[in-house]
Structure prediction request, 354 residues.
Amino acid sequence: MAVQPILKYPHPLLKKMAHRVAALDTAIHTLVQDLLDTMQAGPGSVGVAAPQIGVGLRVCVVDVSSSRHGKDNNHGLLCMVNPEIISRCGLAVMREGCMSVPDYTGDVERATEITVRFLDSQSGLEREVAASGFEAVAIQHEMDHLDGVLFLDRVISVSTGLLRRKSYR
Amino acid sequence: MPHRELTHYAVSVVGADRPGIVAGVTEALYKLGCNIADSSCAMLAGEFAMILIVSHKKPFTKALLIEELKPVCERMAMTLSVRHLPLGEEDRKETLGEICQITVYGADQTGIVYRVTSTLAAHQINIMDLQTKLAGTEQEPVYIMLLEAVLPDGCAPEAVEQLLDGLKQELQVEISVRIVTPVEL
Prediction:
C-alpha cells in the first residue's frame, strides 16, 4: 500500500502511449493497489491512471460512487487492465479538471454512453461494463491518460463559443 | 518565480482589426523580457481588443513598458492603456461556490445587460466572464448574452433561475441557467 505522487505536466510520461499488460502478476496487483491508494488520497478524485504515477502501463482505476455526479449511476470500483472502448454514443460537454494539470479546467466533449472491455484485476476475468453519465466521462478521461492524451488536447473552445457564422459562397 | 520578485501590469490595446496586431504587441513585450501571465484577445465588431496581464522581474517600471509599446500602438493606430497592479491583484482568487453559465437572449432592447447583471450583483453573484452579441436582422435585432458567474456559498442554481424569472417576464427574454462547476478527474 502506497500513495504515489501524481506526475504533473510537462512530465514526459504523461504524453507517452502506455504499454499493454502481458499478465496479471504481483507487480500489476501492487500497481492497482497504489492507484487505489493514490485515488483515495486525492481530494474528490474519482480515478487515476498508471502513467500519472509514473508507470507506463495500460492500467487505471475509476470509482465515481462517492462523487455527487456519479453516486446514482455507477458500477462501483473498476480496476481496469488493458481497457478498450468497444462502443460509444451520444456527446456531452463537461468542464474537466485533472490532478496532472493543476489549477486549470476546460470544457471537453465526450461520449455519454460507452461500453468498455477490460481485464478486471480484482477477479482476473475479462469484463464488459456499459457506463453512462459521469462514470462514462471518468473512464474516458482516465483511458486518455493511457494514450498520452490530456484534457488540454480535447478542449473544445477557448471561450463560450458563440461566433458569427461565416457566409458560405 | 515567487510573485514578490515580479511586478505586474494590466495592458490593454484596442484598434481597427488587421493582421499583425498580436505579433507587434508581443514582439515589444518579448524584447523587454516581459511574461504574459494571462490574456484574452477578441474581435469585437471591427475592433481587435487585447487585454493582458504581463509580469517582469523587478526592478522594472511602467514607463519602460509604455516606452516600448507606445510606438507599436501608434504605428497601428491602436489605443494603449497600462496600469500597475498592486500586490495581491495579480492572482485570481480561488472560487468556492458553484459556477453557472447563464444565457439570455431575446428581442433587442436597451438595458438587458444592466438589468440582468444588477440583479446578480445585488445577490453577491460574481461574474467571471461575459460576452454579448447583437444578432438577427436589422428589422428584428436579437440580443444574446452569455455569462459565467460564481454563486455565493449556499446559493443553488435553481435559486438564480427564480431570481431572474421576474426579469424574464418583464423583458420578454429567454433566460437559462446551467451548472458548469468543474469535475475533478
User: Anything to note?
Assistant: The first helix of chain A runs from residue 26 to 41. Chain A has a mean pLDDT of 93.
